[in-house]
């Protein structure tokens, strides 16, 4: 599997939250189970976390790797503000330190934790290397770490090999005519944060591998805070941030088209905080020859 240097990208400090959590949920060494669910157009690698829920890696034909961490207790998940992803070394890796990889914000009101394909690939790579991906759930009230859900690398290797074989048998990308990426922004900001870079890294890899892409459309949006004319300018600036990244990474400028919609065409409810967060984004659409 291709390696991605992600730690340098984030530049975050390696601080563990395990000791601060009220409970750590992880399958015991002898009880750790990985299951492969192959389908005609997809492959799923599943791990059950006792007392918490399910971790699922999914590969669909012609698409990047998807990941979802789904809790059993949906009511409890609604009380979570954010989730911190760390890679914890195994006991035999005593010279290595825990690494904080990303802060996964649940701003859109989702019950499950998901991540971009590049970060999902990095998480699979950590499991291959015997590390334990941990997800520290921070509560809305007080910001303390309530629960840590850990994905055990025990008994991972053999099922992972089957997962790779399943992917090799999936149909190719022929016939796929569009692929989309979404880059989200903080309120009033045009700056690319760590999670935006996750998306752009995945986009960069797609553009490098697939030479059939002939057009890249950047559509910029905002929430309704502020004046409409100011939001139109902010949408243009957000598109420019993405465009500059693409140009710096060798993308032909003649392939890029920019459309700034401002607060028009919202995908979320601007009356709510989570809805406004969904509207602060640049939609990146790829067209194929």
What does this entry look like structurally?
With 289 residues, the protein is an alpha+beta fold. It has 2 domains: 162 residues, Immunoglobulin-like (Sandwich), CATH 2.60.40.2540; 111 residues, 2-Layer Sandwich (60s Ribosomal Protein L30, Chain: A). 26% of the residues lie in helices and 33% in strands. The protein contains 7 helices and 14 strands. The strands form 3 sheets. A 5-stranded mixed beta sheet has the order 1-10-9-6-7. Strands 2-3-4-5-8 form a 5-stranded antiparallel beta sheet, covered by helices on one side. Strands 11-14-12-13 form a 4-stranded mixed beta sheet. A hairpin with a 3-residue loop joins β3 and β4. The longest helix is centred in the C-terminal third of the chain and has 21 residues. The relative contact order is 0.15. The N terminus is likely disordered.
What features would you highlight for this structure?
about 290 residues, globular, five-stranded mixed β-sheet, 14 strands, 7 helices, about 25% helix, 60s Ribosomal Protein L30, Chain: A, 2 domains, alpha+beta, Immunoglobulin-like, disordered N terminus
The radius of gyration is 20 Å
Bin the strand percentage: 25-35%
CATH class of the largest domain, please? Mainly Beta
CATH topology term of the largest domain: Immunoglobulin-like
How would you summarize what this structure contains?
This protein has 289 residues and is of the alpha+beta class. It contains 7 helices and 14 strands.
């Amino acid at each position: 599997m291709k390696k991605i240097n992600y730690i340098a990208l984030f530049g975050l400090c390696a601080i563990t939250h395990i000791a601060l959590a009220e409970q750590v949920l992880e399958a015991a060494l002898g009880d750790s189970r990985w299951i492969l669910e192959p389908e005609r157009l997809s492959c799923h690698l599943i791990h059950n976390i006792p007392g918490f829920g399910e971790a699922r890696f999914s590969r669909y034909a012609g698409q990047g790797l998807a990941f979802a961490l789904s809790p059993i207790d949906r009511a409890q998940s609604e009380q979570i503000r954010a989730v911190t992803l760390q890679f914890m070394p195994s006991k035999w890796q005593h010279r290595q330190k825990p690494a904080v990889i990303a802060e996964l914000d649940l701003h859109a009101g989702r019950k499950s934790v998901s991540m971009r394909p590049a970060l999902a690939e990095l998480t699979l790579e950590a499991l291959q290397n015997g590390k334990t991906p941990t997800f520290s759930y921070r509560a809305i009230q007080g910001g303390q770490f309530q629960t840590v859900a850990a994905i055990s690398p025990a008994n991972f290797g053999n099922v992972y090999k089957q997962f790779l074989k399943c992917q090799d048998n999936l149909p190719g990308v022929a016939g796929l005519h569009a692929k989309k990426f979404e880059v989200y922004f903080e309120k009033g900001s045009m700056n690319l944060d760590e999670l935006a870079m996750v998306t752009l890294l995945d986009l960069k890899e797609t553009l490098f591998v697939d030479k059939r892409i002939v057009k890249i459309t950047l559509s910029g949006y905002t929430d309704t805070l502020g004046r409409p004319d100011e939001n139109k300018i902010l949408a243009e600036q957000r598109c420019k941030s993405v465009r500059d990244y693409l140009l710096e990474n060798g993308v032909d400028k003649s392939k890029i088209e920019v459309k700034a919609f401002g607060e028009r065409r919202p995908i979320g409810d601007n009356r709510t905080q989570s809805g406004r967060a969904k509207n602060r984004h640049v939609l990146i659409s790829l067209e194929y020859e």
